[in-house]
Amino acid sequence: MVEASAKWKRWTQLAESVRLSDAKWHWRPHECGLCTLVPVTEETNPPSSAYMVYVRGRLRPGFRDGSIFMFPATENEIGLVHETNETVLLYSRRASPDLNRYFESYEVIARRHWDPAFFIGAEILEADRGDGLYLIGDHNVCSIEDAMISGMYVARRLCAAQQESREEQLA
Asked: What single string gives the DSSP state of each residue in 20-50?
């Protein structure tokens, strides 16, 4: 039997050799309790980078209402998120969006860039990959809610499988 620390070392070497932005690979639990990568053969959504500008200011009419304003896919901007402290997060595909378009007056508090930020597109990946493999996260819709829902779905599937296994053992 291979020592656990040797398995861990091999796994970390494998993990470091994989580009995190490669959407064609996903982690899979291995019988030793660690993880391996498995290929995803169907189409996946391409990685997208995003820029965020954290702004304090007065929004122009049309952008003031609601807590979230989502832009059409044809726009360079992705969305405006109204924070409770009267600040706004503007997500964009551009490093320097035209803030005058959205604000009457403003002060930039911070800027951030993520690459990749998320995977956007029309492809929907099933959570149940077969053979005991499940995909959990915001891989279909970029949100914490999607990650939570897929996690709850998989947890319920695993609990049901465990219950069935117990019932089979008792029979």
From this structure: TT-TTEEEEE-TTSSEEEEE--S--PPEEEE
